[in-house]
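Notes, Module 5: Reading structure tokens.

Key idea: the token line is not a picture. It is a compressed description, and you learn to read it the same way you learned to read a sequence, by spotting repeated patterns. We will look at two proteins. The first is printed below with its tokens.
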Amino acid sequence: MGEVEIDEGNRLLIIRSHVVCYGNAAEEELTERIRAEIETMWNEPLVSIRLNDVLYRIRFEITSETNKGITDIDIYQNIDPKNNYFRIEEFAHGNISFVDGVGSNSGYFMLENLYPGSTTAAHEYGHTIGLDHPAIIDIRGKGVPGIMYPRGTLVDPEFQYDPTKPAGVTGGTMHPMHRRVLGDDIIQLRLHAMRFKKGKALLGDFTNVYHPNHSDYPITG
């Protein structure tokens, strides 16, 4: 989720989001890496769009904090559209990171998924600002995969876990490290169609879910 603001003087369309990390595995260094990955990757395309016949360059400004003491009430009562809450733990049910739907502002990250260059944080952030996985996940012959392609996507060999493997077998699918935010990912946000009030608009919506540690709630049955 984020707050979009029109900066008429500088011809900028600024998307501001604030990442709040909590949980046992949340540490300042990791939170900063998540912040930097999101901001860097989403600013790479250098896209501009036209609003009311004026061309605005899109810029993402991401801030962050680690708050191990945050409570469910703190998150539930949040009214700041910039805030996104992610619990980080070593264990996650399903063995994968996730957010609480397309256009949400909360989720749960598994530590193992957050290695440097993983693109996991940038991918999940894409979900929070309204993007889903593409319907077609066989993009062989189409080059670099966009940021929203999920694990298991079929790609050209150089973007696989193992370039020597046939497509679709173990090692023969997209390595997430090869994902990039492309210009089309920005266009899919449909910023030109947003309704601005006093120069601001919301991208995404409030879910404000506090996630307990999955290790405390084993799956049974």
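Here is the second protein, with the sequence above and the tokens below, as before.
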Amino acid sequence: MSSACMAFQRITERVIIPTVQQTQNLLLTNTVTPGGYDTTQIEPTQIDYYTSSPYPGLETYSATWDPYPSIQTPTLNVSETETKNSKLVTASPSPSTTTSSISSPTISITTTPIPSWMLSKLKATDPKKFTLASGKYQLVEFFAFWSGTSQAMAPIMNRLELEYGDQINFIYLDIDNPANDRIKKLLKYKTAPQFFILGTTGNVIKQWRGYVDESEITQSIESLLK
């Protein structure tokens, strides 16, 4: 045999022989197709390509493993000498307390009567008893029973009357009384309440409309009586 033939035989053995060994692990099964033709199907034997699962499951942790360890409480080491020198302090019992009945003080309440002028209501002067030239200073008020401002001014006017009623005349004229229409025109009445301070001859010294502070009226009266 020539050297060329021997080299070809060696190459063939390296290629063909492993292939034959691999096919020995295959199982040949004869099956018949519905059409009647015999076919040979090669079923590979089960080969474990992996020694372990390529997709391992989730790792399980030990029940004793704590992902959030608690704060460790430091241990206080006390020497034997310190233990002997320490003294045990016993709490003294609290003194017994006796509950004594304490009588509450008697509170005496003194009620101050409300001044009459604060409870006073609107009152109307008889128009027949009023004249402009009375020879005396006069404080004239045009009011209305339905006016809230007139109601608010009633206690103020009554208090002033109690203080100065013996020195000047206080006149209260109801604007809804037709008998006062002539006086309203003479004094040029506009709206209720309206106040006039008249001189001894009936001349107008001062006037106000609406709610008037008590101190302002008092100051005007004081200036007349000086």
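Summary for the second protein:
- The mean pLDDT is 73.
- Strands lie at 27-32, 38-43, 138-143, 169-174, 194-198, 204-209.
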